[in-house]
Amino acid sequence: MKHASALPRRPLSGVSSSADGLAVPIDFAAKYGAGLHLGVSLGGGGLYFVAWQIAYLSKLASMGIDLGGAQRVVGTSAGSVVAAIIEAGHLTRFEREVSVLGKVPKLLGALAPAAKFSPSQQHALDIFVAADHADPDLIKSIGHAALAATAPKPSVMSRNVGLMLASVKWPSSALHTTCVDAHTGERCVVTADASARLTRAVAASSAVPGIFSPQPIGDRRCMDGGVSGSGVHTDLLAGCERVVVLSLSDGSAAPLGGMTIAPGSIERELDALRASGSEVYFRVPESVDLTRLMDPTAVPDALAMGRRQAEADAESLRAFIA
Predict the structure, then answer these.
(1) Phi, psi at 5, each rounded to 5°
(2) Fewer C-beta neighbours within 10 Å, C or N terminus of the chain?
(3) Which long-range contacts link 97-102 to residues 24+ away (Cβ below 8 Å)?
(4) Rounded to 5 degrees, what are φ and ψ at 199?
(5) DSSP β-bridge partners for residue 239
(6) Three-state DSSP state, 89
(7) Largest CA-CA distance found in the chain, in angstroms, rounded
(8) Are strands 38-42 and 215-217 parallel, antiparallel or unpaired?
(9) Strand, helix or coil at 214?
(10) Number of neighbouring beta carbons within 10 Å of residue 254
(11) Residue 181 in contact with residue 146, Cβ under 8 Å?
(12) What's 209's DSSP letter?
């Protein structure tokens, strides 16, 4: 097997449409991943999906399958936290901490509070949750509501992210986090080349409208990367030989759409990724309760599920990334 950690890294470059180099159009035809052998996309899904991904990836690593060695690792929302953790080599440490915190929900909840919201917070969250498409005007309206919401100060979330990551330095050029400019609605991609701290980039990617305030990234104020019509942003890997995608859902359980994800959009995105020439290994949790994504008490079940699925997938995934 060609071990992933031995592969050369190559950052996204030459594709930005903005002066600050952050705004990157969603475009599968651009084949942003061309020339790469292995890419990984880690999608969004709250505390629940952080726990599932950490357990899944940690179990794989214990069996000799290290996806953190991919040439490009794209993290969105919850996936940006996990992507930063694995690129920094802190996977085992973080899984241990999440396992302990999962037994003390109050402590885990303090890192990602999701209790009572002000009316302005609830308004922004409601617009986001009800959004069944990703038209630019709708994305901008969500962003403007997020900017107006009286959510905790941006520094609060950035500090909490720092506690999880235990690092403020970019771990590698392979790490690419996604977010959305709350004012313009542009999809932004933040890498080690950007003038942004790692904690800010991850906090921006995870800033769910209404729950958290948009984060300052340069002169922008950026919100959750999932407010874009995609929770996985696989276009950033289009053209890559082999792509592993960990997604909260395959879309089959959400026929009406929501959170800017239109019905059938996940299937269409994967079809476009395959059409770009990429082989795809796609995995979702066995089951998901969408009402408990930010519920700390759901973490133990997510951890157990992730480990179980990783053990079942290990040999097929080993062969896939070879």
Answers:
(1) -65, -15
(2) N
(3) 98/50, 98/51, 98/54, 98/299, 98/303, 99/300, 99/303, 101/296, 101/299, 102/51, 102/296, 102/299, 102/300, 102/303
(4) -65, -35
(5) none
(6) coil
(7) 54
(8) unpaired
(9) coil
(10) 18
(11) no
(12) B
Q: How distant, in Å, are the alpha carbons of 3, 40, 103, 308 from that of 175?
A: 18, 10, 30, 27
Bridge-based pairing of strands 72-76 and 38-42 is: parallel
What's the per-residue H, E or C state across 5-73?
HHCCCCCCCCCCCCCCCCECCCCHHHCCCCCCCEEEEECCCHHHHHHHHHHHHHHHHHCCCCHHHCCEE
Pairing outcome for strands 220-224 and 175-181: antiparallel
What's the CA gap between 288 and 51, in Å, rounded?
A: 12
CATH number assigned to the domain with residue range 36-319, chosen from the 4 options 1.10.287, 2.70.98, 3.40.1090, 1.10.10: 3.40.1090
Q: Output the CA torsion 82→85→88→91 (10° steps).
A: -110
Tens digit of each residue's pLDDT (9 = 90 or more) over 220-233:
999 999 999 999 99
pTM: 0.93
Rounded to whole angstroms, the Cα distance separating 306 from 47 reads 13
Q: Which two tokens stand for residue 42?
A: 């880690």
Neighbours of 283 (CB within 10 A): 17
Structural domain boundaries in the chain: 36-319
Q: 3-state class of 283 per DSSP?
A: strand
Taking residue 177's Cβ as centre, other Cβ atoms within 10 Å add up to 34
Q: How many residues does the chain have?
A: 322
8 A C-beta contact, residue 168 and residue 197: yes
Integer Cα distance of 78 and 248 in angstroms: 10
21-30 pLDDT, tens digit each: 999 999 999 9
At residue 195 the predicted structure's pLDDT band, cuts being 50, 70 and 90, is confident
Exposure on the CB side of residue 47, measured as CA atoms within 13 A: 25
